[in-house]
Amino acid sequence: MNKEISEQEALSRLTALCAASEHCQHDMTDRMARWGVAPDAQARIMEHLISHRYVDDERYARAFVNDKLTYNKWGPRKIDQALCQKRIDSQVRQRVLEDIDDDMFVETLRPLLASKRRSTRASSDYELNGKLIRFAMGRGFTMPQIRQCLGDTATDDFD
Predict the structure, then answer these.
(1) 92 C-beta neighbours (distance < 10 Å), count
(2) Where are the alpha helices (DSSP H) in the chain?
(3) pLDDT per position as a tens digit, 122-155
(4) pTM value surpassing 0.70
(5) Tens digits of per-residue pLDDT, 39-52?
(6) Which residue of 31, 93, 108, 129 has the lowest C-beta tally within 10 Å?
(7) Could you give the CA distance from residue 44 to residue 34 in angstroms, rounded to a whole number?
(8) CA distance 112 to 54
(9) Contact predicate 27/86, CB 8 Å
(10) Inter-residue contact 16 to 28 (CB < 8 Å)
């Protein structure tokens, strides 16, 4: 089931895959390794995919950030960590995340916190705010973004 495939077949499969959706270099090399493609052939295939713009890590990162913010409701820290796991260069990650306005993250977080507030039980406002802050941080949002959504008076005790 895990038989080796030829270089030409791997190139054909990967170009078809990249034509259908965005993929990063790490995804492609990982696939080729699973397929048993030789390392020198992997390098030639990657060179072809990059030179013909089938694979572009910055374009992939922009699509990834947009999807995770829009559909998964992730904050910048969680998105950055996921891009790091995909082995996207730190300068590319930073550039792509800086292009997203901080207000977009706040607009994403505000309804999440409102919904979580309704479904969370707490014996005091202090306890409730602590739970909301932990929830938001788990989603990858920063403290300034959380403060902006909860209001500065709600988070003064958590500095």
Answers:
(1) 18
(2) 7-20, 25-35, 39-51, 57-70, 76-85, 90-98, 102-119, 125-138, 143-150, 152-155
(3) 999 999 999 999 999 999 999 999 999 998 544 4
(4) yes
(5) 999 999 999 999 99
(6) 31
(7) 17
(8) 36
(9) yes
(10) no
